[in-house]
Design brief:
heterodimer; A: about 100 residues; mainly alpha; Helix Hairpins; elongated; B: about 600 residues; two-stranded antiparallel sheet; about 75% helix; about 5% strand; globular
Amino acid sequence: MNIVVVATALFSVGLYGVLTRRDLIAVLASVEVMLGGASVLLVGLARTIDMPATQLPGGVESVGVLIVVLAAAEAAVALAVVIAAARALSTSRVDEMTEVGG
Amino acid sequence: MTALVENAWLVVAVPFGLALLVGLTGRILRGAVPWVTLLAPLTVLATGVAALSAEGEHADSVRWLFAGEKALSFGWSVDGLTAIMLTVVGFVATMVVLFSIGYMHGESGLPRYFASLSLFTGSMALLLVADGLVGLFVGWELVGACSYLLIGFWFRKPSAAAAAVKAFLTTRVGDVGLLLGLALLWRETGQLGYSAVFEAAEALPVATVTTVAILLFVGAMGKSAQFPLHIWLPDAMEGPTPVSALIHAATMVAAGVFLVARMWPLYELSETAQTVILVIGVFTALASATVACAQRDIKKVLAYSTISQLGFMFAALGAGAWVAAIFHLVTHAAFKALLFLGSGSVIHGTGTQDLREMGGLAKKMPVTALTWVIGSLALAGVAPLAGFFSKDEVIHAVLTRNTIAGLALLAASLLTAFYITRATRLAFFGEYRGDGHPHEGGLVMSVPLIALAVPAATLGFAGHFIAERLHEHAESLNMAVAAGSLAVAAVGIGFGLITYRNGAESEVAVENRMGKTWETLRGAYGFDAAVSALVVRPVTAICQWLYDVIDRKVIDASVESTGRWVPLLGRLLSSLQNGDAQWYAALLGAGVVGLIALLVTGGR
């Protein structure tokens, strides 16, 4: 159960960061924390729940690796978006980016 | 000829079609408009004549409005009564359309006028050929609407517009009674076709039949201008005179008499309803005959005379002599239409309606004068003209039923002879007092006058024929009553001639001598003013209050407040969408938490 607690804590801390940090880079970092929480839960649960090896080639560990790869790709794209946004709006603060607001 | 009777629905379809045609293409047809319109009354007349000679009854109907297992049927049927009425309507309408060509010459809006006339003819025919109260009611309302359109033909004249509204609203009061009667009949019997109703009515309690009969009679009172719903008819004289002849003398105002005669099997069951009709008929006949004596406007004389004569018909109905009522309706249609068209000819020739500005017209308008005198004598009840026979039957029937009512009718006859003598003396004899150049209106106006003078003189001999067509026993002339009413007519005419021996001077003398009495009579006993004070003004005040308070402060206010709170709500909602991605994410998170909570608790 500890694993679930740790994963939930990580995810919540990340969510809190996403919602409260004003800097775009910090928000992005918080997203990574949320992702970390999710992967901890996956890998950790794989240990406690008996999962037939046949269903996932390479075992449950492969999911953790997959998330790491995904996170890397996402970070690359997101950082590019952040830079482009910061240039276009001449700010990196999230609360100032309200162009789509009504 | 039988083809016309077998397709009697044409009497409605053709005039309606022509009304549409004339109304839409009047600008192209121009001078041909009246001649095209003439087809409408001719169709009605031809069908009426064909039906008079045809054997048996013809009918057809469709089931129209369905309500569960019940259905309103809508159809036509032609029997003796319908045939007689169709002939009358067709003949008078034909003459009126012809006369209008001369009378309305040079008016603008003629396509509208002739289209309305055609529409009226069709509506009246619908009222007559309907095989049940549903069709009758539709026609009933349509003739009312046409009457409104035609009274208000000169709608730029405020008095004409007001008269049109007054006529429409006053008859509506009666129409509500008629509608209530129909509703009650439907609730009690589930039938509105004539024969079905008569069959079912025999099983009803007398009180119910009486209620229905009186409610229907209220409708008839409105349409036929019986006290106290008569106030619209004198005002309706604002319309063109041919319209007064057609609608407000010969046909539409007689629809009430037709309704009661048509529903006679119902009225036969209720002694009370008959008494009510008798009382109102006699009272109206006598009271409006007195009023007619003091009118200065030639059309007003005829208007009150019409109310009085309709009172005669209702008196006959109330006395149980519905055949006599129809007989008087037919003869009255002829001589009163003649008198109205005669007055139209006079108005056309002199440019005034005031009797004091006429005089000596007999020399300048001989055809009008001659036909007018024939009509007057027929109205006064001089033998052997039409009015003598029919009025005689009416008075005989009423005398048999109730002596006082009969004597009141005799008194009304005396007044009738008196006031029509006065009008004739003032308009056609003596010296001309106006400053115009009186002239005849040409052939289109003389021909209808002559054509109407013939039945006005001779229709009295059709009594047996009419009774036979109505499958009733014909009354033979009662010599005592005939002699009595002839004496009454002679006294009335003689008294009129003596009183007005000096024409206009006598008129002034009479007015001076009678003073207030004459003024009261001219103002129709102030009944109109009383209605204004007691009914119209309170109702207007209530409506004003409803407008000020209910409409402005409740309905309008609530609608306008809608306009205020919608933007408010919008501003509230738009604050949700502020463009802050973190705010969206927070809402998203809250939503997910909510969903999960829902899943975990299972919606409890």
